[in-house]
Specification:
Number of strands: 14
Helix content: 55-70%
Distance between the termini: 69 Å
Strand content: 5-15%
Structural class: alpha+beta
Largest sheet: 6 strands, antiparallel
Strand order of the largest sheet: 3-2-4-9-6-7
Order of helices and strands: HEEHEEEEEEEEHHHHHHHHHEHHEEHEH
């Protein structure tokens, strides 16, 4: 079963990669939006310097130019007889096709170039000084606007490079500017899709890290996918046209080229849970050191930035070799999750090797190959994430079934034991019932108010001090509420003391009905009541007191006042003395009275 699942995963990933490669190598472009001409043949090159006059200006007459040693070349890049030279000329006769707004698209240039037509320089990338030297400023795509009369004319390109490659690189397209830009945007669709997928997968992994006990492997996978997204963003054609910061993009590209394998190594280390610790530790230190070297190269002006790419290729090969060895071992004896990530890495390793060979012109060039690598790795991570969620769900489901079985057994035992206890308790209750009734009568009479049935002031003061001690010792919240009937003297004066007593009894009954069993309500004075709320903060106490206020407001009295209202002050214990807490509640009660009565403060 495990072997079948592994093979199925490998088959799905391989099919996706092959379909993607076929789409990239043979793009399906409609005739309406397709660039008119691919300039991949008809080029010539010359290492000779152009003749110059006494002022140093290039002599552009046909005889002088044609006297140079021009040789045909399939593509304007890396002539065979370089021999350490750093300046080369390329030329091509543009097709005799009329373009309303001609433009030239070039994927990249190694490393600086000047474009000439009819003895006029029409475009410069970077700068080539009087000594024929230049400074590396990155490898962005180039969109060059040509003169309107460019059809059938000769285009000359002067290129400087102290890098291993010299010349143009990738695809060269000639067509109407609008169509070329449309082509660039359509090519970006795949990159944008991969960018969005990577960001979503990275976000899911990060949320998994937050929600599942902060497992480091989920954090590493989220960082990897976010770094892949940053790398893809830096390579989008549209982005390069908007920001125009090619050297910064190279810094980002180089940094991610080290950080991604560094965190892949950390991911392997977490997945392997103790296996191959020596190899992964050594590889992690290697990439950490390589990252420091990259930073040094970035900060030392005398070191050409492009020299870093040889180091990055070496770093990639080292990582592919060591992690490839670990992956092959895990395919044989690892668990299912280790096999999944090993297969994913092995496929990515093959793509990385192809990318390295492609950068050295050893295999056919594919313009969106980096997108493909990221797409493959992101899809692989998504499958691993899906497996993790499935595994988590199955574990949860199993634990739920086990818990349900244990609960059923426990309920059965409880029922048997409960029936036995009920019979024993029934007999004991009959014996104790009479004693309790007699004892309660004595106790109630000593601690309750004879009129309202609420606790009297002596008892409530005793409980108040006890709650203060418990709250102070154990840090539990404790709140009190001081109630006072509004205009109660007017009730006694207008309706008599008997009606007043009935009002007090119904108010007390409202307290009884609306507080919890653990709460205590007592008559603190004539028409003043104190409620104690143990293990309750002031917000919860406010909810209860507001409910009491509303219910008292709805009371009806036959032959008495139409409505009785109360005001209350609520306070929560915060370390002060009992008297200070009472004073605070009384102060809040006073504020409620001053604010118009029939309210809680």
């Amino acid at each position: 079963m495990r072997l079948r699942s592994t093979c199925m995963l490998l088959l799905v990933l391989s099919m996706g990669i092959m379909i993607s490669i076929t789409t990239l190598v043979h793009p399906r472009e409609s005739g309406r939006s397709r660039p008119s001409v691919y300039l991949n043949e008809g080029w010539e090159y010359s290492w000779d310097a152009f003749p110059r006059d006494s002022s140093g200006s290039i002599i552009w007459d046909g005889k002088s130019i044609n006297s140079l040693a021009w040789k045909p070349i399939d593509f304007p890049s890396n002539p065979p007889d370089r021999e350490g030279r750093s300046l080369v000329w390329y030329r091509i006769t543009l097709p005799d096709s009329e373009f309303r707004d001609p433009a030239l698209f070039i994927y990249s240039i190694d490393i600086n170039a000047e474009f000439y037509m009819d003895a006029r320089r029409i475009y410069t990338f970077g700068r080539i000084d009087q000594d024929g030297r230049g400074k590396f400023i990155g490898w962005p795509v180039q969109l060059i606007e040509l003169p309107a009369e460019a059809a059938g004319r000769e285009l000359y390109v002067r290129v400087f490079s102290d890098y291993r490659d010299i010349g143009l690189w990738g695809r060269i397209l000639l067509g109407n500017r609008a169509r070329v830009i449309s082509y660039m945007y359509r090519k970006d669709l795949f990159g944008l899709t991969v960018l969005i997928i990577s960001l979503l997968i990275g976000l899911v992994f990060f949320m998994t890290y937050i929600l599942t006990g902060r497992q480091k492997v989920s954090l590493y996978l989220s960082i990897i996918t976010f770094l892949l997204a940053v790398r893809i963003f830096g390579q989008l054609y549209v982005q390069q046209q908007v920001f125009a910061l090619p050297i910064l993009l190279e810094y980002i590209d180089a940094g991610t080229s080290v950080l991604i394998p560094l965190f892949i190594t950390r991911t392997f280390r977490s997945f392997l849970t103790g296996r191959f610790d020596g190899l992964t530790s050594m590889l992690w230190k290697f990439y950490a050191g390589l990252f420091i070297v990259v930073l040094i190269i970035f900060t030392v002006p005398s070191i050409p930035v492009h020299t870093i790419y040889a180091l990055l290729d070496v770093g990639s090969l080292v990582g592919v070799a060591i992690l490839g060895y670990i992956s092959f071992r895990c395919l044989g004896d690892g668990n299912r999750e280790q096999k999944y990530i090993s297969i994913n890495f092995l496929i990515m390793a093959m793509l990385v090797l192809y990318a390295i060979m492609m950068s050295h012109s050893l295999v056919p060039w594919i313009s969106e190959f980096d997108y493909l690598v990221v797409f493959q790795f992101s899809v692989g991570l998504a499958m691993i994430l899906g497996y993790r969620f499935l595994k988590l769900y199955r574990t949860y489901e199993k634990q739920s079934l086990e818990l349900a079985s244990m609960n059923r057994k426990l309920e059965e035992q409880v029922q048997v034991r409960t029936s036995e206890l009920e019979e024993a308790n029934r007999r004991l209750a009959e014996v104790n019932a009479q004693l309790k009734r007699e004892k309660n009568l004595l106790k109630v009479s000593s601690i309750t108010d004879g009129l309202t049935g609420l606790y009297n002031r002596t008892y409530i003061d005793e409980q108040f001090r006890q709650f203060i001690k418990e709250s102070s010792r154990y840090g539990k919240p404790f709140s009190i509420a001081m109630f006072d009937l509004d205009h109660f003297k007017r009730v006694n004066d207008e309706y008599g003391h008997n009606t007043g007593d009935e009002v007090l009894r119904q108010v007390a009954e409202t307290f009884h009905n609306l507080i919890r069993e653990t709460d205590i309500a007592g008559r603190y004075g004539g028409e003043e009541f104190l409620l104690l709320f143990p293990q309750t903060d002031h917000e919860e106490a406010l909810v209860v007191t507001e409910r009491i206020r509303i219910n008292i407001e709805r009371l009806e009295f036959e032959g008495g006042p139409e409505q009785i209202t109360v005001s209350a002050g609520v306070a929560q214990y915060g370390g002060e003395s009992a008297q200070e807490l009472l004073n605070q509640a009384d102060k809040n009660l006073y504020m409620a009275k001053q604010s118009g009565r029939n309210r809680i403060v």
